[in-house]
Amino acid sequence: VTGASGSLGGLFARHLVTEHGVRRLLLVSRRGVSAEGAAGLSAELAGLGAEVVWAACDVADRAALAAVLAGISAEHPLTAVVHTAGVLDDGVVGSLTAGRLSAVLRPKVDAAWNLHELTREMDLSAFVLFSSAAGVFGGAGQANYAAGNVFLDALAAHRRAQGLPATSLAWGLWSEVGGMGGTLDAGEVSRLGRGGVEALTAAEGVALFDAAMAAEEPLLVPVKLDLAALRAQAGIGMIPPLLTGLVRTPARRAAATTATGTDGGAELRERLTGLAPAARDEALLELVCSYVAGVLGFAGPEAVDPVRSFSEVGFDSLTAVELRNRLGGATGVRLPATLVFDYPTPTALVEYLRDELWQDGAAAVPPLLAELDRLEKTLVTSSPDDAGRDRITERLQALLAAWSEAGALATGSDGADVAEALESATDDDLFDFIGKEFGIS
Q1: β pairing state of 224-225 and 197-198
Q2: Contact (CB, 8 A) for 366 and 355
Q3: Pairing of strands 219-220, 167-171
Q4: C-alpha–C-alpha distance, residues 263 and 267, integer Å
Q5: Which one in 135, 196, 360, 368 has a CA-CA gap of 20 to 30 Å to 217?
């Protein structure tokens, strides 16, 4: 068992003894028996009838691990590996230095590969890798951690393809046990909860471990989901794609989200357009403060001071991204990644959103879309004959051509110029254009 001095390592060492009848354990951690709690764990396991040996070893150091494995007696050979070791160092992609990447990837990638290669010729009954759901669903601020865990998942598939035992468990959040979640503060745990992930108890975790050992899949995802929170995420277009089949999303909202990457803007404008300017600003401020309170875990919008800066109330790069995504989904406005730094208070942010929501011509959009909805419904429910269908098709094509021509005249563009520009554009030019149009960084 690697990472044995950690809370998960200790939990599963006990579980292997009490529920799986294991009587000899090699517990590996960087500090070995001198690690905090190691002596107590040894005494507890001995009391349960197990023989325990500790090894101080960095599993990512191939030579050190080889020496530890060479010390195992032939009389009692190694029969199973449970790799629980891991390190977190969260941050947005731009902040991830080579050192921060290495610190997280080393106990995942290097250590797991060493275990794979050095035990490949041994007759193992199990080779269990503790991965993370962050590698399956993605996780804000966890690019390095997600990448390391995806490697574990791929290694399990690689071993299975070679006829070797392997199971990668992409764990969700743990509660009192700790695990990687033990380093998270209350705000980070709250953010995960809003994303639809609840914490596993120790009892739930070991039960899922046992279920996984009876399965034949190389990758399993033991995670506890909050479907109500997932529905809320779906409502603002932020549900992870892999989970969309678990909750029902209104068709119109799903279509809008797919088409624009945002949602709710037309509805919000329609609701606020009839208000007086002061009432409109007040409603927008309540909206902003509600999302700020939700992101920071405050009791409600009344707990947010509208003139106090976001940095003063506890925003960091991750919560800034979350607020930007949630407001973008609610308003339908493509918001910059630097939103809370460019507009550092709720009041300043309201002024920005007001200008973006009610640009010239923006107020005319909801009625036009409503007309198109009515037209769509009429077309879907109508059954004209072939001649009638052809006439309707020609009329729609003529309207679309006239609309497109009007748009080109309004922007000063010319179809020939566009075609010429596309012909002469490089791949980089095209990708840059697509990125700007669709907000892809």
Answers
A1: antiparallel
A2: no
A3: parallel
A4: 9
A5: 196
Mean pLDDT of the chain: 82
Give first-to-last CA distance, the chain, whole Å.
Answer: 41
Closest CA to 25 of 57, 44, 51: 51
Cβ–Cβ under 8 Å, residues 278 and 173: no
Whole-number Cα distances in Å, 61 to 31, 66, 130, 146, 168? 14, 9, 19, 22, 21
pTM of the model: 0.65
Chain segment 221-253, per-residue pLDDT in tens? 999 998 888 887 776 666 777 888 888 765 444
Q: How far apart are CA 297 and CA 302, in angstroms?
A: 12
CA 77, CA 34: separation in Å to the nearest integer?
Answer: 25
CB atoms within 10 A of CB 214: 6
HEC string of the chain? Answer: CECCCCHHHHHHHHHHHHHHCCCEEEEEECCHHHCCCHHHHHHHHHHCCCEEEEEECCCCCHHHHHHHHHCCCCCCCCCEEEECCCCCCCCCHHHCCHHHHHHHHHHHHHHHHHHHHHHCCCCCCEEEEEEECHHHHCCCCCHHHHHHHHHHHHHHHHHHHCCCCCEEEEECCECCCCHHHHHCCHHHHHHHHHCCEECECHHHHHHHHHHHHCCCCCEECCCEECHHHHHHHHHCCCCCHHHHHHCCCCHHHHHHHHHHCCCCHHHHHHHHHCCCHHHHHHHHHHHHHHHHHHHHCCCCHHHCCCCCCCCCCCCCHHHHHHHHHHHHHHHCCCCCCCHHHHCCCHHHHHHHHHHHHCCCCHHHHHHHHHHHHHHHHHHHHCCCCHHHHHHHHHHHHHHHHHHHHHHHHHHCCCHHHHHHHHHHCCHHHHHHHHHHHHCCC
**343-371 tens-digit pLDDT:** 999 999 999 998 888 764 455 555 566 67
